[in-house]
Amino acid sequence: MNYMEELGQKAKQASHVIAKAGAVLKNQALEAIAKNLLNSTEEIISANQKDLEQAVKNNMNLAMQDRLKLDETRIKNIANAVLKVASMEDVIGEEVRGWIRPNGLRIRQVRVPMGVIGIIFESRPNVTVDAAVLCLKAGNAVILRGGKEAIFSNTCLVKVMQNALTSVGLPAELVQLVEKTDRETAGDMMRLNGYLDVLIPRGGAGLIQAVVKQATVPVIETGAGNCHVYIDESADLEMAVAIADNAKTQRPSVCNAIETLLVHENIAEKFLPEIQQAFEKHKVIIHGCENTRKILGDSVILATEEDYFKEYSNYEIAIKIVKNIENAVNHILKYSTHHSESIVTQNMQNAEYFLNSVDSSAVYVNASTRFTDGEEFGFGAEIGISTQKLHARGPMGLLALTTTQYRITGNGQIRS
Amino acid sequence: MNYMEELGQKAKQASHVIAKAGAVLKNQALEAIAKNLLNSTEEIISANQKDLEQAVKNNMNLAMQDRLKLDETRIKNIANAVLKVASMEDVIGEEVRGWIRPNGLRIRQVRVPMGVIGIIFESRPNVTVDAAVLCLKAGNAVILRGGKEAIFSNTCLVKVMQNALTSVGLPAELVQLVEKTDRETAGDMMRLNGYLDVLIPRGGAGLIQAVVKQATVPVIETGAGNCHVYIDESADLEMAVAIADNAKTQRPSVCNAIETLLVHENIAEKFLPEIQQAFEKHKVIIHGCENTRKILGDSVILATEEDYFKEYSNYEIAIKIVKNIENAVNHILKYSTHHSESIVTQNMQNAEYFLNSVDSSAVYVNASTRFTDGEEFGFGAEIGISTQKLHARGPMGLLALTTTQYRITGNGQIRS
Questions:
Q1: Do A242 and B409 touch (CB under 8 A)?
Q2: What is the ipTM of this complex?
């Protein structure tokens, strides 16, 4: 039995305990975690300090150092987020459907915990706590594998959570950290069939693709976002500019920001100069098709096929003029990662056509794609945004961390 | 672009067409398929004949030859099954949930087709049609990869379905057969990311494990069934014998038949001789624990650890006497494949304890495990029985072949 199998076995045993814990006990555990985080602020900051020293030694860039850093305010915010999860409604035990068969068998489909959830993530240590408490709230055990850049912080945070769990009588093994951060152990985790019910990677495209390619356990793919806004012929011009600008520039690094703007040829001459002006505030680099350059001039770089596939994730965008809505939809079907797309239009038929034709997890009419987010959808918290179709699609809240079980009651029925 | 990628691309394009087809058109397609199957009976039988000749040459065993065989009656049954699927209610377009956010955004979670579904299966050619029409009914394109033993039959059946599809104006590429039956092509299919939204293996444990290990596309694991019946202290004796006998002997080759019988020590002396007598009709081979042998004698083979893990899938069973219900549940948690388990009891607390503690897709009180089946659950038809927790669990009907999409309507909302 290798290191990961040992963690897996402990997690599985612990998962059977929490699966039967009621909402009261689970919430007590979360409240104890929040309290223990606050009480351990000094200890956490000093562990984090070791990671930060290592980061400086390794010349980690300043933005990443900032993401790695924990201070009193951030720890307070993490603790508050835990209390918020505690206050959410419990989803376990819900009777999803129920019916009686002609032979008298009563079948109930009941919501139950997933079991053991694996999370592989990169350096931000707040994810360690966020992800763990969502898994616990949904009645699961969790195995966390963070980056080695945050190993001191993560080890400390997991110890704080484990102490809180045992203080309310739950097993410490409900939250375990993979302390070996080598690649081989990560590979073992991805092949932990029989112990891991699902593995969720959270991080950049490289991490996610590595997990998709190597894992033999079920995976939920998250995050990749080549999103589009299409400005229809009939769009309200002011609304179109506001939505396109917001979708691109409000926070360009996130997955629900757009990368390509599609513009109907009949509105292009009015719309393009206005969006160009709006984009200038953020010095957005524009890659445009030939026709876009005819309108906006040579400051626009000629867009290549590659541009349409690209996630810029910064102040950079591709713009393409299309002949009609069909061309816009076909462009999206070809280049999109099927995350979020929006149409700006005053034409009801076109809105319906777009909703029915675009095969993405979230499709918008007259709103910014930036709303694809668990909080914005009203889910209270989010474990990630699924870009696959299996199990969960779009922002994933607590329900994505559960499964169902059929419970069948009879009085001696046998099959003939 | 390799052979599988070509099939994938064609399937994806076709999937966009059927995704927008209404229930009427989809049902016309299914009715045309049923009609064309009947009209092509001679052609199908003659193609099947070639497979059968090959089977004889290769010394295929007689049971498998029988499963491979198509005759007039079997083709009629397949056509009738297609019509039954056509008569089922359409599941696409259902608004699963809908709500309005404080900012006025209206969010609807709508049921949509999965997209492109891959099925890898073994020799039975009726699966070719059954699986294809379920995928079509749920608005999907399907890529079928059957065994090479049935290649002539499958090629003919797929051609018959394709002709029916084009006769109602739908693309032939909605149903495609992988005509290259080599291992390399199967591997390409398992790694067809970007084209296949899900891959469902149907067949023996070897096939399923190969797919789980090699696939990089999302997979639904099906079929493995190490199922249990637990006879509680308070069980009605007659009911216990009837259920245990039915669960073992009514059709021992299928996945919802039981492999191990757990018996409370206080009822063992009364129950075991009776079930032994019932089992004698089918000459069931019994592997028992030490205590079972004390009661039933030396004709019972001593059960090993390995026996408790085994799927006999024939007239063979393991029997273990347990001290209490906790021991029974722990045995199930350890050895079960989490398919179907049943308790026979007159004690309400024990029934509840069993339902809440056993982590399997279907858990029964006082009924045979043999009911874990799409038809028996009332789903009309079944694409398989999922033994994983992601996406679908237990018998999978049409809903398992769909996903959802968020459709969000606003009037200019942007994120601040």
A1: no
A2: 0.93
